[in-house]
Structures are given as C-alpha cells and as structure tokens.
TrEMBL record, chain B:
<dbReference type="InterPro" id="IPR013783">
    <property type="entry name" value="Ig-like_fold"/>
</dbReference>
<dbReference type="InterPro" id="IPR014756">
    <property type="entry name" value="Ig_E-set"/>
</dbReference>
<feature type="domain" description="Sulphur oxidation protein SoxZ">
    <location>
        <begin position="9"/>
        <end position="102"/>
    </location>
</feature>
<dbReference type="Pfam" id="PF08770">
    <property type="entry name" value="SoxZ"/>
</dbReference>
<dbReference type="InterPro" id="IPR014880">
    <property type="entry name" value="SoxZ_dom"/>
</dbReference>
<dbReference type="InterPro" id="IPR030995">
    <property type="entry name" value="SoxZ"/>
</dbReference>
<protein>
    <submittedName>
        <fullName>Thiosulfate oxidation carrier complex protein SoxZ</fullName>
    </submittedName>
</protein>
C-alpha cells in the first residue's frame, strides 16, 4: 500500500511539474519575419503594472510561432493581398480609390498603424483604423462605410497596418482628450463583468502565463491585430476579440467600435507600447 | 469567391544534388459539400481535388485532396535537384479548371 501511494505521489508530482513548465512563455525565442527582427519584449511605459511587455507570440506553440516567421506561409497574407487590391480600386461617387489621395501605401502608411487609435478632433473621439477608413470612404470617396467586420474591412485594415510591420507601437496621449479616454479604458480593463465576474486584468494581468482550461493566457497584447486565429481559420479584428472575451465572461459585449470599446482599445494598445506591429500575427 | 491564384516559393538556384524546400499555396474556398445555405439547401462541393508537381516532365510530388482539407490549401515538400530545369505545379478544381504555375531552377 505504501509503495503504491509513493509511486502515485511521484507520478503526480512529475505531471504537475510538466504542466507548470509548459505554461512558461518561450521568452528565449526571437521572432524574425522574412528575416526582419521584431521587438516582442519591451520595457513597459511608466505607470504600467508590468516591468516588461511581452507579445502574445511568445505564448504560442512552436508550430504556431513558425507560421508567423514567413509571410509566404502566414495564412493571413491572403487578406493583405486583398487589401492591396482594395487600396487601388476606385469606389464611390467621387471616383477615388485610397491610392488616389494616399499614393503608395508603403510610403504614406508607414507608421500609421503603429500610432492608432489616434485622436480625431472632428469626431471628438479616438479613431482606430476601422473608423478612419470608414470616415475616408464616406467623406472623401462617397462610398458606403464598411459594416463592422466585413471581410474587405479586415483585409484593408490588415494591409494598412502591415505597412508598419516591425515598428514599435506608440500612442500620442497628449492629443485632445486621449488621456480621458485612456482613463476610461483603464477603468473598463479593471472592472469585473459577467456571470463569471472577470475583468480583463483577472486573466491577462494576474494570470498570464498560466492556463485557463486548455488555453494559455497571454498578456492580451493587440500589436498583431488583425490577427489570424487558427481556431476560426480567419482574420479576427481587435474589436471582435473584445467581443469574444467579454462574451466568454458571460457578460453583454460592448458595441463594436462604440465608445466603451474604443476607450478599451486605446488603453489596451497603450499596454503594448514598444512592441513591434506584427500585423497580421498568427495565434492559436 | 475570388479567383484562385497559385503562389509558389522555390529557390532560383541550387547546388547539384541539393535538397530544397518548396512551398505552395492556392486561394480556394474548398467548399466541402457538407454545408447548407441560409435557406437550408445543400451547398455543392467544390474543392481542389488534386495537386501535382513535375520536374522536367517527371512527377516529384502528388496529392489527392479530400473535402476535409481546409480553405487555401498549402503544400510544402522537399526534393533533390539533379540538374537545371523547370518545376511545374498543377492544381485541379472540381469544376474542371486547372491552375498552373512554373518556375525555373538553375543548378550551379
């Protein structure tokens, strides 16, 4: 009886050890995309709860990590190609395409994706890429705005953000009322919602690096969005991910692109300050 | 569905006898035939059912593809390069379309 008990005990310990070890993010790895090195760990900005901000790339399996290192293999690059087509396609009553005003995206859009959400004085709120594109379509092109998460919207957002690949995320919080929106976003981040009574921080601040059932929790950084999620076999926007996360707490999700969700995107993007734009990233 | 366009990544040069990695991708919805539309009618199957690669006319890789393969099928394989030549890739669609792509490899 004693021997059996001891044997079980040893096996149990070994198993616990294996689970704990596998939960550590692979911080010794470096991400290169087509040979270009990405910043996937950066010193946190002042006022941040962490010392180091870490890209979600480090938390994924070796196979998933490998998918992001070669743009030929990255399944989301098909969306980026589609985005480039849209960029050059004339739509709307003004007879313009994105390129009519902005020319070569590789030059004109370089860095744009790294600094959004950005204050929009006219609208009196922070604009992310989705809102900016719809604004352009309505005001400049005389075209219909994209419905939230339309395939072409995700493709164009991914294409534009991809022009900033490798550049560090950095928001200008001094513009307009950005600081106020950041504060609102922070409040939402730390507020518990839903039947499961979870805040963003419950998982991504207090328990990142550990498992929630079969899922390996990351810091919840958004530097790679829109992101290709293998689970959905599709490109997923950051606002859609917010919706999914809040739904999983069994709360009513925020309206996509609404004020709460934009405040949250502003704050969460700031939490990844210094990380490279990885758009389109590949995750589980 | 957007028109299917093949993409390949093949080294342009190789040493004689070198083993090279070849990557291929084609965009395709790979409709399995198991799904129904919003009115409940079955959506007919339409997939890429065959992929082949030939080097200087002889087959080096072949895959018969079934409906369980996901959208935008990606194939990667290795081959030994005996001499300079052309590698030709062919994808066959259920609707009879054939998509192909070629690339030369120079042995130096």
């Amino acid at each position: 009886m004693n021997i059996r008990t001891i044997a079980t005990g040893v096996a149990g310990l070994a198993l616990a050890g294996a689970i704990a070890a596998s939960a550590e993010p692979a911080l010794e790895e470096t991400l290169e995309i087509d040979g270009q090195e990405m910043i996937t760990q950066a010193p946190a900005p002042e006022g941040h709860p962490f010392d180091t901000v870490i890209s979600g790339w480090h938390y994924r399996t070796p196979e998933t990590r490998a998918l992001e290192t070669d743009t030929f293999v990255n399944p989301a690059m098909l969306y980026v190609e589609r985005g480039e087509e849209i960029w050059n396609t004339v739509e709307g009553t003004a007879g313009k395409s994105c390129a009519s005003c902005h020319g070569d995206a590789a030059e004109s859009m370089k860095g744009v994706g790294a600094s959004m959400p950005k204050w929009n004085a006219k609208a009196g709120k922070p604009y992310n890429m989705d809102l900016q594109i719809n604004d352009c379509r309505v005001e400049q092109m005389g075209a219909e705005p994209y419905a939230f998460d339309a395939a072409d919207q995700k493709a164009l957002v991914a294409f534009v953000k991809h022009q900033s690949l490798g550049m560090p995320v950095g928001l200008d919080l001094t513009e307009g009322e950005m600081r106020k929106w950041w504060e609102q976003g922070k409040e939402i981040y730390y507020t518990r919602f839903g039947q499961l009574d979870l805040s963003c921080a419950s998982c991504h601040e207090q328990h990142n690096g550990r498992h929630i059932r079969a899922d390996h929790l990351s810091q919840g950084q958004v530097n790679g969005f829109p992101t290709y999620r293998l689970k959905q076999a599709d490109l997923v926007s950051v606002q859609n991910r917010f919706k999914g996360c809040v739904r999983d707490t069994r709360a009513v999700p925020f309206e996509p692109l609404g004020d709460e969700a934009m405040a949250l995107e502003t704050y969460v993007t700031w939490r990844g300050t210094g990380l490279s734009v990885e758009t389109p990233a590949v995750r589980q | 569905m957007a028109e299917s366009k093949p993409r390949v990544k093949v080294p342009k040069t190789a040493a004689k006898g070198e083993v090279i990695t070849i990557k291929t991708l084609i965009n395709h919805t790979m409709e399995s035939g198991q799904r129904k539309d919003s009115d409940g009618n079955p959506i007919p199957r339409q997939i890429i059912n065959m992929f082949t690669a030939e080097f200087n006319g002889s087959k080096v890789f072949e895959a018969e593809i079934e409906p369980a393969i996901s959208a935008n099928p990606y194939f990667e394989f290795t081959m030994r390069v005996p001499e300079s030549g052309t590698i030709r890739f062919t994808w066959v669609d259920d609707d009879g379309s054939v998509y192909s792509e070629e690339q030369a490899i120079e042995v130096n």
